[in-house]
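Shall we go through a protein fold together, starting from nothing but its sequence? Please make up or recall a protein chain and show it to me in full. Go ahead whenever you are ready, and we will take it from there.
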Amino acid sequence: MLLTQSSIVAIHGIGAHPDDTWTTSLTTEDGQRTYISWLTEKRMLPAVATNARIMRYGYKSAWFGKEPMQAKVTDVATRLLDSLTMKREVLMTLLSKGVSSTYFV
C-alpha cells in the first residue's frame, strides 16, 4: 500500500503510444475482446495504490523511421517537468478546496 500523498507518473517508452502502453486486452465471458487500462481499471493499479495520484504523460515518440520527430530528449524531459509542475498547482488548488482524491490520466 502506498502512502497517502504518493504520485505515480506513467511514462511510455520511445516509439510507443501512451494509449496502448498501459492497456491489456481481455476476452469477456461472451467472447468479446475488450481493452482496459491498468492505470485506471479499479481492479488493477488503483486497487494497490488506493491513495496515490495516478498520472500518465504522453509525448510524440516516433524518433526513428520515415518521419522521425525533431526533438531532443532534454526537450521532452523539460516538458514533462513543466507538466508536473502545472498538475501540482492544480492539485494544490483542489486540495485547498477539500478535494481528497484526484486522478490525472
The radius of gyration is 16 Å. The chain has a mean pLDDT of 79. DSSP finds three helices and four strands in the chain.
